[in-house]
Design a protein that fits this description.
41% of the residues lie in helices and 9% in strands. By secondary structure, the protein is of the alpha/beta class. Helix 1 packs across helix 11, helix 1 packs parallel to helix 16 and helix 4 packs across helix 13. 38% of the residues are buried.
């Protein structure tokens, strides 16, 4: 079977697209454009759009919003549940989000990050929740005696763009917690955005959004930890997540899911521009680019690097505390408790948010043909520049 053509990418720093046809040029484009991007504006080398479409609205970030066609929605809904109000793509970049995102996009783009904040970034199922717990524990609970550690991680260190998915997922416990933390605030104005604003310093937060949808001055004020993971393991983990979570309810085949991922037809896609924008900024003082696989291989070594970045000056005993508290088994157990209290009914199998956390589990899922197809996709987009 001939591989389906993959969607082309647009450089999300300079917004050009003709340079993104091969992996080497794509990476060079990101690195070059990063040098010209300052805190005031993104220099537009070109804004040419190959296939003109009607743009329904424009965001503060400069992106235009395209509603997905009825044909696309119908095709995708054959295998999964989509959002009540449809989905949109943002141009340039092709980012795929629920239509509800447009309500909160400008608020997120203008969010007031401050000195001392730490933002964990990365694509879904890349290890962002694990990293979030590691960072929060290092800053707030290295002696394992902070009572706030009993709260779920999404309260202590909110996912700021979780609000874009729905405002009706929040059960009674979540709503009560929100009203305690944000008295007088309205749920419809964004639960997790407002919880983030109310956090005590140093605040720890998370996002799956790309850099261009976040404040331009982010790396001037905020320490960013971007975690990347082998895309083959990412897509396997994402597949099980989409199958298990009721508001996705994916029922298609694994092979089809991988092709949706490579064709940028899944929530938060495309994968490569998100990752490569961070990669292009990895030498910035406030950007700490890490790999999931490195943390699995030698967590104590990687925690030492985080200790330096965060300025926490933890002792070896405290670092050992963090490693144990944030082990896969410990976090899975806490996740099952949180699911029962805050996400009851959201998953088909409660507590399955943490599945295996293994490296190389993709080998149990990919056929030789599918592996070759994804290898070509990886080679096209980054060669051996990032993932060996």
């Amino acid at each position: 079977m001939e591989p389906q053509p993959m969607a082309s990418y647009m450089c999300c720093l300079c917004w050009c697209e003709q340079l993104c046809c091969c992996s080497s040029t794509l990476l060079q484009c990101y690195l070059q454009c990063q040098k010209t991007r300052n805190c005031q504006e993104v220099t537009a080398i070109t804004t040419r759009v190959v296939v003109p479409r009607k743009m329904t609205t424009k965001l503060a970030s400069g992106h235009k919003v395209e509603a997905m066609s009825e044909e696309w929605l119908a095709r995708m809904e054959e295998e999964q549940t989509l959002y009540n109000h449809g989905m949109v793509r943002l141009r340039p970049g092709g980012w795929l989000y629920p239509t509800l995102f447009t309500k909160y996009a400008d608020t997120i783009y203008n969010f007031k990050f401050t000195e001392g904040d730490v933002l964990v970034m990365g694509m879904p199922r890349s290890g962002t929740t694990w990293m979030l717990e590691l960072v929060w524990t290092m800053l707030h609970n290295p002696d394992l005696n902070n009572q706030r550690a009993d709260l779920p991680i999404f309260i202590r260190a909110p996912h700021i763009d979780k609000t874009i998915r729905s405002t009706v997922e929040n059960p009674r416990q979540m709503t009560e917690m929100f009203r305690q933390m944000c008295p007088g605030k309205k749920v419809e104005d964004g639960v997790f955005l407002q919880i983030s604003e109310a956090l005590p310093a140093p605040r720890v937060m998370k996002t799956h959004l790309p850099c261009t949808l976040l404040p331009l001055t982010l790396l001037h004020t905020t320490k960013v930890v971007y975690i990347a993971r082998d895309p083959k393991d990412v897509v396997v983990s994402l597949f099980y997540h989409f199958c298990n979570v009721k508001f996705h309810n994916y029922t298609g085949t694994f092979d089809n899911f991988v092709k949706h991922f490579m064709n940028n037809d899944l929530l938060y896609c495309p994968y490569w521009p998100n990752l490569m924008m961070a990669w292009g900024q990895k030498d910035e003082p406030y950007m700490h680019f890490v790999f999931y696989e490195d943390f699995k291989a030698d967590i104590k070594k990687e925690l030492g690097k985080l200790n330096e970045l965060l300025g926490t000056n933890l002792s070896q005993q405290q670092l050992d505390n963090v490693a144990e508290h944030c082990s896969f088994s410990s976090m899975k157990a806490r996740s099952e408790k949180d699911a029962a209290n805050y996400h009851q009914g959201a998953q088909k199998s409660e507590g399955d948010f943490f599945r295996k956390g293994e490296i190389g589990d993709w080998k149990n899922h990919f056929s030789p043909e599918l592996e070759q197809e994804m290898n070509r996709w990886i080679e096209k987009n980054c060669g051996n520049a990032i993932f060996k």
